[in-house]
Amino acid sequence: MGISIFRAGFSVLVILGFVVCDLGVCNGGFTSGYVRNDYVASDMPLDSDVFKPPPGRNAAQQVHITQGDLEGKSVIISWVTPEKPGSNRVVYWAENSPIRNKAEGSVVSYKYFNYTSGFIHHCTIENLEYDTKYFYVIGFGSLTRRFWFITPPKIGPDVPYTFGVIGDLGQTYDSNKTLTHYESNPTKGQAMLFVGDLSYADRYPFHDNTRWDTWGRFVERSAAYQPWIWTAGNHELDYAPDIGETEPFKPFLHLYRVPYNALDGSSPLWYSIKRASAHIIVLSSYSSYVKSSPQYKWLQSELPRVNRDQTPWLIVLMHTPMYSSYVHHYMEGESMRVVFEPWFVNYKVDVVFAGHVHAYERSERVSNIAYNIVNGLCSPMRNQDAPVYITIGDGGNSEGLVTEMTEPQPRYSAYREASFGHATLDIKNRTHAYFAWHRNQDEYSVEADALWLHNRQWIASKLAKSAPVSHLSSAA
Ligand SMILES: *[C@@H]1O[C@H](CO)[C@@H](O)[C@H](O)[C@H]1NC(C)=O
Ligand SMILES: *[C@@H]1O[C@H](CO)[C@@H](O)[C@H](O)[C@H]1NC(C)=O
Ligand SMILES: *[C@@H]1O[C@H](CO)[C@@H](O)[C@H](O)[C@H]1NC(C)=O
Ligand SMILES: [Fe+2]
Q1: C-alpha triplet 453, 441, 170: angle, nearest 5°
Q2: Is the dihedral of CA 387, 392, 336, 279 positive or negative?
């Protein structure tokens, strides 16, 4: 219902837009007139319910899981015991199976200025069955904690799967609303694509790392039950030479593991996974990507490995957007765009999700790859081979929203709005996926912006062989 009201409002605005265009002030897409009355977000205090440690001395806390291998048959389970190493074991079993499996993890800890972390456990469980509910237990005796997750279906071109998308979450009251809206969304996300900037602990004096711990406890209610796919943002850098901290990404890399494979040149900061019908590439905006850098070489070899017959959907996650028309962070993604955009277009990446800019924006399919310094061809052009770029840095962190937009709205920008929220990407089959963005002020089911994504790889190259595709022209 919300959407039809919105659509009605939209058409009125479109008509107004044509009038304005005739007067010579031609904007691109749609700038939402939605106005929040308060966009200052404050962190939840330390004694908030969402930060409460589980009962029992040294009980496992900050439990989170992520995909543990390339194909989704493995899960990395992580948790922290605050006082002592405690048990390193995970007991797990498939629902309806009498067999109890055991796996041993490893434990790490780190110091940051005058903070000493708890004991951080990472345990990879392997050879899981696809599409199966598993229970897992950490700790023993009175400290036992039990969780569950569902493995993805076996990889295949028509396997439906629903991803959640959140960025720049932080730990404010708004962050809590974003997570609640994600959990209560009738379109149930099965795994989270997280586009960077997790805890914002670095905004505290001396990067008070106890705010990494509170964040871990806050997101446990989702991240212990479905994998969160991690991307590093600038707030993961924790680079502070003035207090002797010169190892970039130190807390993040100790607390959050990802399934990279050093042998193929990936790293904890750039890697890929396949899940259901999607191939997901995670990039690092804060690591070198210049020609011949390790990340550049890895992406160059990774893209030809993507098999669109197996995984038709190619999704890229990064922190800093390549296309953003907000004033804040304007053009920060430009250097990476220059290096990687031709590949994205060449390989028909379906959608690029980024955060960093604390607002929402969706682009048209555009590319800006013709420019060679001397030819003057330096504006983005409509290009059906190009990805849709979505900025979703609106998780709700303590830096608040950015509201200042470049004017007029550039033609590549299809929709922009400064509200907190989250999105879902609902892949239906090899040709259709439905993207929807939800703002926190609305009812859980309301879609503030939505778009059918048509898989150009399949619609154009495969289906066209047998029959003309009438809806090609409407392919977003
Ligand atoms: C770390 O140092 C800061 C500044 O001196 C102080 O406020 C804080 O309490 C210290 N924290 C710990 C855990 O010692
Ligand atoms: C966070 O959200 C949950 C779920 O809606 C709610 O139970 C809890 O009280 C909230 N906590 C704070 C501090 O807002
Ligand atoms: C793919 O999903 C779309 C949207 O649900 C549907 O209209 C279409 O018929 C599906 N295609 C096939 C081949 O099932
Ligand atoms: Fe950021």
Answers
A1: 85
A2: negative
* Active site positions, annotated: 329
Average pLDDT on 236-258 reads 98
CA 106/CA 378 separation, integer angstroms = 51
8 Å CB contact between 345 and 358: no
Write down all domains in the chain, each with its CATH number in brackets: 156-196+269-464 (3.60.21.10)
Q: What span, in angstroms and rounded, lies between the C-alpha atoms of 181 and 267?
A: 32
Identify the nearest ligand to the CA of 208 by its number.
Answer: 1
Look up residue 260 and give its amino acid. Y
Residues near ligand 3 (Cβ within 6 A): 428-429, 431-432
**pTM, 2 dp:** 0.92
Q: Is the pLDDT of residue 7 over 70?
A: no
Q: Count of residues for the chain?
A: 476
Ligand nearest to the CA of 207: 1
pLDDT band at 125 (very low <50, low <70, confident <90, very high): very high
Q: What's the chain's Rg over C-alpha atoms?
A: 22
From 132, 57, 121, select the one nearest 90 (Cα to Cα).
121
Half-sphere exposure of 122 (CA within 13 A, CB side): 14
